[in-house]
Amino acid sequence: MDYHSPASFAEASALAANATGITRFLAGGTDVLVQLRSELVTPDTLIDIKKIDGVRDINSNADGSWTLGVAATGADMSEHLELGRDWPGVVEAMDLIGSTQVQGRATLTGNLCNGSPAADSVPAMVAAGVTVTVTGPDGDREVAVEDIPTGPGRTSLAKGELISAVHIPARGDNGGDAYLRFIPRTEMDIAVVGVGVSLRLDGDTVTEARVSLGAVAPTVLLVEDCAKAIIGSALDDVSLDALAAAASAACNPIDDKRGTIEFRTEVAGVLAKRAAKIAYARAKGEEA
Amino acid sequence: MALDDRKTQFTFVGTRPDRPDGLDKVTGRAKFGADVSAPGMLHGAILRSPHAHARIVKIDTSQAEAHKDVKAVVTRADFAEVPFKPGLEGEFWNVLENVMAGEKALYDGHAVAAVAATSALAARDALKLIEVEYEVLPHVTDVDKAMEPDAPVLREGAADYSVPEGMHPNVVRYHESGHGDVEAGFAEADLIIEDSFVTEATHQGYIEPHACLGMLGNDGKGELWCTTQGHWIAQKTCAALLGIETSQLRVTASEIGGGFGGKTTVFIEPVALALSRKANRPVKLVMTRSEVFRATGPTSSASMDIKIGMKKDGTISAAQGVFRLQGGAFPGAPGDMTAMCAFAPYNLTNVSQIGYDVMANRPKQAAYRAPGAPMGAFAVESVIDELCKKLGLDPIEVRLKNAAHEGTKASYGPTYERIGLVETLEAAKAHPHYSAPLKPGQGRGISCGFWFNHGGETSVSLALSEDGSAQLMVGTPDIGGSRASMALMAAEVLGIPYENIRVTVADTATLGYNDVSHGSRVTYASGLATIKAAKHAVEKLCERAAASWGIPADAVKWENGCAVPSGPNAGDFDPRPLADITAHMGQTGGPISGHFEATPEGAGVSFGTHIVDAEVDPETGKTAITRYTVIQDAGKAIHPTYVEGQYQGGAAQGIGWALNEEYIYGEDGRLQNSIFLDYRIPVASDLPMIDTVIVEVPNPGHPFGVRGVGETGIVPPLAAIANAVSHAAGVRMKQLPMSPPRILAALKDNG
Amino acid sequence: MSKFHVSTTVNGDAVDYLCDPRETLLDCLRDKLNLTGAKEGCGTGDCGACSVTVDGRLVCSCLMLGVEADGKQIETVEGIAEGDVLHPLQKKFIEHAALQCGICTPGILVAAKSLLEKNPNPTEEEARYWLAGNLCRCTGYDKIIRAVMETAEELREAS
Hints:
The structure holds 3 protein chains of 3 kinds.
Chain A lengths: L1 E3 L4 H10 L4 E4 L5 H6 L7 E4 L9 E3 L5 E3 L5 H5 L2 H6 L1 H8 L4 H4 L4 H6 L7 H8 L2 E6 L2 E6 L4 E3 L2 E2 L6 E7 L6 E8 L10 E10 L2 E10 L6 E2 L1 H7 L6 H14 L10 H23 L5
Helix pairs in contact in A: 5-8, 9-10, 10-11
Chain B lengths: L21 H6 L14 E7 L5 E7 L1 H5 L3 E5 L16 H9 L4 E2 L5 E7 L2 H8 L3 E6 L6 H4 L24 E9 L2 H7 L2 E9 L11 E6 L5 E5 L4 H12 L6 E5 L15 H11 L3 E4 L2 H7 L5 E10 L5 E11 L8 H8 L8 E8 L14 H19 L3 H8 L18 H10 L1 H4 L6 E10 L6 E7 L5 E5 L7 H13 L6 E5 L16 H28 L6 E4 L2 E4 L10 E2 H6 L9 E6 L7 E11 L6 E11 L6 H20 L30 E6 L21 H13 L10 H10 L2
Parallel strand pairs in B: 1-12, 10-11, 14-15, 18-19, 25-26
Antiparallel strand pairs in B: 1-5, 2-4, 2-6, 3-5, 7-15, 8-13, 9-10, 9-12, 13-14, 16-24, 17-18, 17-23, 20-21, 21-22, 24-25
Helix pairs in contact in B: 7-8, 10-11, 11-19, 12-13, 15-16, 18-19
Chain C lengths: L3 E7 L2 E7 L5 H8 L18 E4 L2 E4 L12 E3 L12 H8 L9 H14 L5 H7 L11 H17 L1
């Protein structure tokens, strides 16, 4: 295995473009090292992007949006109070991944590029409308988070491409987000179901919503029917039931060691309701 | 064993001093299995079968052997010929077959070859150079399916004499016991409940993977360092598997990072020695976590049928159980233990129990804390709970009504001596937990549990130093603070401070044979041996004092660490403290030591009663344990803090077993969850504080009244939690683990 | 592939080692620097027995490559005591019998110290969640949590 620690994304991209065999980028390494150790994936080329300037930065932009470096860790995010005030759902979703120790290393970008349908941060990012900059041999392009994963362990990134920045939109007024997942324990598990909700209110009425489901299909889903179920409502019981039904209907899960089809389908609806209520309360400025 | 001068008033016993090895263990200094190295050391790695059941057609090691970094490759041919015998008579053969596959790979993860190379990475890489040709065979992993007539046969001839004619060859041992007339008993019952229960295999889950460092020359002399619960059994087994003399192999036990029964046998140790013999260099072998799950002992999985009849007043009129245990690809599943323990808490007129030991394509089961007992208790105590519910009776009152006591003929045969079950039930009834209000969505469960406890072969040696300190050598590895309890017991007898006693876990060359640290035997048996060895030394101290005073030895007694005349008639002499006598021992007859070698047989059975509150989320089926109380008879708690620790640890493991831990096999017979991410043991945020009540009903078979406390604590939790969850959810849970998908499905089925 | 020369600081001492890029920081600490206090319980970041801090951040040393440690400040269990004076957590763990077998203890001490440095006044729930990545199979966590909470209280009173 070759190990490189380039000083720029252009250099990293060139290294990957010219590499043969299996290439992996190393950010927090919490997935790459597990795969390496278990000999699931032994890369021929490993490109550590943490020596690139600014990759740990979390910056707020003039328009209220946020730009995160690709090696900013979950712990960095959790300790950033302003980011947490704007996007508590995104920060909490990231924070749910693994242990305190894993939080010291794990990154949003790594969680996204690992391509797991159960990645906790991804439904939260999709709900929040997060985009990423992809740097490749032909320069940079902006891509919505939901367009990165294409299936379990697979992404739309081409050879030589890597994510070089994460962009979280401005929260704006009267907005709130939340992410909930189901795990059998209280910590240290992979999501059996995950639900991200971001919404905006006008008074008591939901005017914008994005609802995203994890671990219930080969990729994280952005479910328009869920959004439709609550837009225009004050999140009354009828709309919440419609939300749950839409979430369950969107599920296309598998039976595996972590959960059954029936369980995932049912619990997706339960969590969608609960997450929507939290996001709604946050949009109203209430504690949740 | 005759016990003289039983003690009831204590100076040291019952106090809570710091453990002697505390400093080493909080500074990272303590040496565990993987923490040593040797000059010229090689690193080993083991190639494992990816198939659940396959004939090994050919193993080609030539490419691996040709690699520059590889110094040895071994397969089954590099081990001794060990005779095959049925059942557990052939245990050396069984262990060898498990350590390195012969003609067939019998489970996913079964070792088929091993290499030693110049680095751990090189060893792992070299495994990829070994080519194994397999002929894949049909497999079976479920216990009930393994007993069906058309089930794949793992091995002909493995069944021992106990198995009735006509059973499938996978049934290898059979147990039947009981007394009275169960049919007559059922006829007297006002209510009979008959039900079936299933538990999945769980792993002991010790955090330290198996690790060893072996060195063996072609002169047949060897050294082995390993993490083990018993280094004498490792010595004996390794010697048999390698064809060397037992005494020529010196085994040293490392500090042990948890065992719970799983480190009572060998897995990698003979392999490291075989590699070392071939390479003529020391070889270190360390398992990965995945290897631990795939190839070391989980518990048995179980399928059980229970029938209990009860009268309206709560009297159990008859009880019957059939327990089918799957123990992997070898004989050993403790169906007999399950059967014998299941009804042991109760004073029954009519009881009948049958246990089966069944082979399947899974790793060889190993002991796990009261092996076999928790499953049976789950099934039996669930039915008793259901009977109480249907008859409107209080579950503790019913258990008190039927509780075994001194003089009860146990369900498994013998008559109980003094036991403490009733005391644990009375303590449970009086505990504030039992009467505390429950919140909506919560349920409360209770259960009793029983374990035999064990004595076992034991050797202890105690030597006094000139300055009056003592060194104590025991042969039972310290899994959970036993050095502290040994020092307390020695201090009690010698009358010198706890801190003046250094306890060492001796290697196999410096002490006589010691059975494994299992069966909750250490504080009982090594403790008894320590007391006897210390008394032996005290006799000599008294003799020296007597000689110096010119009076007979029997005119001297030992009091508060001093030799004193036994009475006014013996003479008027100043007390001679221990250090005063040892200061001159070189001139008065030589070194003073005490020792003990025997097999203590009065272990004293143990009972516990647990109370647990659980809360079930009706929308997701997720369970939270909100309160937990362990009440257990310790006989006499030598170091109460470590007794509490055993209770809490047993409860926590039981919570894991009840709720989320399980071996999950795919259709292909491969284990799907061989890492801690998916084998879900409880984490800190899953658990509440675990309250403990130490009941002390002295064991007549120990000078200080000790009963073992290590194992009983895992017997009640499965049932207690199942009862709590069943009350909270409003539906009887009959399968473990009670994972959220299972509970949610049960809630749906229940409407 | 040739090996990498890594210069790093462990418990305040400047150290160097050569490593294969596939070797983890844990491998390097244990096998190259003979610091065997950190344990490998899983190799997948699920048990926390290999916990160390890197530039003040709590991590699993099995989830970091040895080559990534170049230029970092690493603290392990061997560095918790100051000379012959044990850290209050170490004393409290012995006093409370917050260890049985002791294999998880080094990782738990490193993690608990990191908790108290970041949050001197944790709730029991915060302590339990902070330590959720440190598996203990012996104790049921009861005495560990009590030891951590009591140490936190004593440290607050002392400061």
